[in-house]
Design a protein that fits this description.
Number of strands: 8
Number of domains: 1
Distance between the termini: 31 Å
Order of helices and strands: EHHHEEEEEEHEH
Number of helices: 5
Strand content: 15-25%
Helix content: 40-55%
């Protein structure tokens, strides 16, 4: 498989690469006890909804994983899972989602109606799972939007470029 370096006979895990949500979450968790100490329990209790929002955002950022092997690709956030069988791949689409900072999402669907949303730029090992998706799309003749195709190809090409750069640098005396 072009650009893949792992053994895909066993499940692989790609973790998050961005933790931007954690900065405000940490701030909320630091400020809440300060509010309790300086202003009392009543004001701290009023701030509990902010603490809950912080807990949800922090959990979302820390628990998100992309699991993949030659048979499936799956996004998990804690106990919640979305899984697509690659031998039944139907389509890969791109949609711009979120704020301007967001790079959008790839939506991977299979013929059984399952769909996985993959946040572009948020998972490690992009070259491996991108190559896996491109190979599956070619094998199953799945519909792949041009923007989605270029995102996946770029991830594989970046890994190939990085590999070549490291190999060249290691041979310099």
């Amino acid at each position: 498989m072009a650009g893949s370096g792992g053994d895909l006979s066993c499940p692989q895990v790609a973790g998050p690469t961005e933790f931007g949500e954690l900065v405000p979450v940490i701030a909320i968790f630091v400020m809440w006890p300060i509010i309790w100490i300086t202003s009392g329990a009543l004001l701290a209790a009023e701030a509990l909804p902010l603490l809950l929002i912080g807990l949800l955002l922090g959990g979302w950022a820390l628990l998100m994983r992309l699991r993949f092997d030659r048979d499936y690709i799956e996004r998990t956030i804690g106990p919640f899972r979305q899984r697509v069988r690659l031998e039944a791949l139907a389509s890969i689409e791109f949609k711009q989602t979120g704020t301007r900072r967001s790079q959008g999402m790839l939506f991977v669907s299979d013929t059984q109606g399952h769909r996985v949303g993959i946040y572009v730029g948020r998972f490690s090992r992009a070259a491996e799972w991108s190559a896996l998706l491109l190979d599956a799309a070619e094998t199953t003749h799945a519909s792949v939007q041009p923007r989605a195709h270029s995102i996946l190809q770029r991830a594989v090409a970046n890994a190939d470029h990085d590999t070549n750069r490291h190999v060249t640098a290691s041979h310099i005396p």
